[in-house]
């Protein structure tokens, strides 16, 4: 095969392909794209460790192994030459039989950090360098037995993201994920998108408050925590200097500090829509604005509620009357419940 720069879709949907010779890409030293290279190769079972050894100029490997439903493992070091990669979207998405994760040197430091990289890997077992994630019991939907990782999910996320802009979907649907340890995104300073990052992580209980401290350029977070129904901690925040005091600044408050987080963030409704939808147990849920998925209408003054009870005329029960007063109240909801009392 002659040397090419674009090898995109080279084996796309070769449904009967089971293996590839280790030297197949040996002379492809100038290739910059291998996007969808093995997309839909449902019969592919193994990969040689040095398959990409000479492909040091690759920048786009999006969907490279997407849909390789029979791929059971990836050899250590397979991705070590991906030092210039900027897009690894859906890299292993849908590898349903993948049981082990490669040990890598985490050199691929420019990548679009794993948008859907591991989604659908429902058979994954514990992986090397297990340090960053912690799972609850139960059956996760997408990363079924992923126990932990260092430097991002099993080394596929770069330890330092110099040019990557998207961290969207990384843990989407990891229903057993309970928390992550500090420092997971410490050096991801260029990331701007975290949309659906923890979408439907129904066991997620809390996160380090400073998990996004190094990500001051975030401008899109739609549905990032949507469906995190078990989250009881406070949503992530960054401590900043405001005058003479340090204050917490949550994601939904960043627009109030343009000097720190930029003036052009969360400019469209879709960029923050439903970020915290369904997170009703979250400690600061009452402060999260309605468009962000919370219940706050922007007012701060606390209302007062006065209840009075008087016998209802001609009835055997009392009538309750409630009066709500507030200097800022725009709207409100009243929840009334009844409980039947038994008489002896």
Description:
It contains one helix and six strands; from the N terminus they run ββββαββ. The chain has 344 residues and is largely without helices or strands. Strands 1-2 form a two-stranded antiparallel sheet. A hairpin with a 2-residue loop joins strand 3 and strand 4. The radius of gyration is 25 Å and the shape is elongated.
Estimate what percentage of residues fall within beta strands: 5-15%
Please write the string of helix (H) and strand (E) elements.
EEEEHEE
Overall mean pLDDT score?
A: 78
Q: How many E strands? A: 6
Rg:
25 Å
Distance between the termini: 91 Å
Shape: elongated
Structural class based on helices, strands and sheet pairing: little secondary structure
Give the uncertain stretches in residue-range form: 99-109, 111-116, 122-159
Helix content: under 10%
Main sheet strand line-up: 1-2
Main sheet attributes: strand count, strand direction, barrel closure: 2 strands, antiparallel
SS summary, helix count: 1
């Amino acid at each position: 095969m002659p040397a090419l720069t674009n090898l995109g879709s080279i084996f796309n949907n070769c449904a009967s392909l089971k293996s590839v010779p280790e030297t197949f890409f040996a002379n492809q030293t100038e290739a910059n794209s291998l996007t969808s290279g093995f997309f839909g190769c449902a019969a592919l079972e193994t990969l040689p460790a040095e398959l990409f050894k000479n492909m040091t100029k690759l920048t786009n490997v999006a969907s490279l192994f997407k849909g390789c439903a029979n791929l059971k493992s990836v050899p250590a070091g397979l991705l070590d030459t991906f030092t210039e990669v900027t897009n690894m979207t859906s890299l292993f998405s849908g590898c349903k039989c993948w049981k082990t994760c490669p040990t890598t040197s985490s050199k691929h430091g420019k990548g679009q950090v794993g948008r859907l990289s591991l989604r659908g890997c429902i058979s994954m077992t514990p992986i090397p360098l297990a340090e960053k994630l912690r799972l609850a019991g139960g059956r996760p939907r997408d990363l079924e037995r992923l126990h932990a990782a260092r430097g991002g999910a099993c080394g596929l996320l770069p330890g330092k993201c110099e040019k990557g802009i998207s961290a969207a979907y990384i843990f989407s649907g990891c229903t057993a994920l309970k928390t992550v340890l500090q420092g997971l995104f410490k050096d991801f300073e260029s990331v701007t998108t975290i949309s659906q990052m923890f979408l439907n992580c129904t066991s997620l209980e809390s996160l380090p408050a400073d998990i996004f401290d190094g990500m001051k350029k975030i401008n899109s977070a739609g549905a990032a925590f949507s469906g995190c129904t078990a989250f009881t901690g406070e949503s992530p925040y960054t401590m900043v200097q405001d005058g003479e005091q340090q204050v917490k600044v949550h994601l939904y408050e960043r627009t109030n500090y343009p000097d720190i987080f930029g003036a052009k963030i969360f400019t469209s409704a879709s960029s923050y829509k439903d970020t915290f939808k369904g997170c009703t147990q979250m400690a600061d849920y009452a402060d999260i604005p309605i468009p962000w998925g919370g219940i706050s209408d922007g007012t701060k003054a606390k209302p007062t509620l006065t209840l009075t009870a008087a016998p209802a005329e001609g009835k055997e029960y009392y009538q309750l009357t409630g009066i709500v007063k507030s200097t800022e109240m725009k709207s409100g909801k009243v929840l009334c419940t009844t409980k039947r009392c038994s008489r002896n």
